[in-house]
Backbone:
């Protein structure tokens, strides 16, 4: 456990800490970090998503296990949204993204690199499957739904036209179609995509750390409740549901590991993109990132 924590988890987490420290020291400003975050979201992340979804071996997935994980996400999201909206009385969009933070794990930029270090690129197929699921289904759902909630008065045609220009959604759709086509990825194109995507995790985590440095670390009632739901509710429910399935034990272990990961930065990125106050979303990411260090090391 200690070796995994020191050698595999802390090096990834340290990038976020570096951004937090430099933000606190005013070496890097919030505006500069916001620009970095936008570049990572719109420019660096699409190549990473494309490489993942277009090259992954879809035949190696246990789809019932993935859907079981998704069922756990759906239950936790519904409960979290109801808690935020009707008990804690937060605004609709904020409640929507706070609930997203309880189910959208930082799989792509945090769990995936950690699991690759521990299990190797061929040993973490379940994590790759969940990254693909979260990128292709869950993330796409929240991008579309948030956009529709923000532009409720817009016509269907206007909404479709606006969403059709979203580079992340376009990348997801094109990558899946490319994968299904069976066409090979041309070597120079693959090299360019790998070069672009190489810094995605580091840039995103660093920018997130800078932006989070301006946030109070004192947990409110909302932050405490949602952090607990994320760190304990989701993994416990997912582990319980997976126990009823018939697939390799490794899938149970790694999907539970993923569920125990910290809240993903995407809820924060979407909030920033659409002008939703991230004052409660950001601390959920901070606290789940810190507290998940030990649970991840134990589960891994």
Residues:
């Amino acid at each position: 456990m200690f070796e995994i924590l020191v050698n595999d988890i802390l090096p990834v987490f340290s990038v976020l800490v570096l951004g937090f420290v430099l933000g606190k020291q005013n070496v890097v400003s919030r505006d500069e970090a916001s620009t970095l975050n936008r570049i990572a979201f719109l420019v660096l992340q699409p190549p990473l998503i494309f490489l993942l979804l277009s090259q992954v071996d879809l035949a190696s997935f246990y789809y019932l296990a993935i859907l079981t994980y998704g069922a756990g996400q759906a239950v936790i999201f519904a409960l979290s949204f109801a808690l935020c909206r009707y008990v804690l009385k937060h605004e609709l969009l904020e409640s929507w993204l706070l609930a997203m933070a309880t189910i959208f794990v930082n799989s792509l930029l945090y769990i995936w690199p950690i699991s690759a270090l521990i299990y190797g690129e061929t040993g973490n197929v379940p994590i790759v499957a969940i990254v693909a699921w979260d990128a292709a289904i869950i993330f796409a759902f929240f991008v579309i739904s948030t956009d529709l909630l923000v532009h409720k008065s817009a016509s269907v045609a206007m909404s479709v036209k606006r969403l059709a220009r979203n580079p992340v959604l376009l990348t997801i759709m094109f990558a899946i179609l490319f994968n299904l086509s069976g066409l090979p990825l041309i070597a120079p194109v693959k090299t360019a995509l790998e070069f672009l995507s190489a810094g995605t995790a580091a840039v995103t985590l660093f920018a997130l750390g800078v932006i989070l440095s301006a946030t109070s670390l004192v947990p409110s009632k909302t932050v405490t409740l949602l952090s607990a739901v994320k760190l304990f509710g989701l993994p416990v429910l997912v582990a319980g549901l997976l126990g009823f399935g018939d697939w390799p034990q490794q899938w149970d272990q790694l999907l539970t590991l993923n569920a125990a990961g910290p809240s993903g930065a995407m809820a924060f990125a979407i909030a920033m993109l659409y002008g939703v106050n991230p004052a409660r979303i950001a601390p959920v990411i901070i606290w789940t990132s810190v507290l998940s260090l030990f649970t991840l090391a134990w589960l891994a």
Remarks:
- The radius of gyration is 18 Å.
- The mean pLDDT is 84.
- The first helix runs from residue 2 to 24.
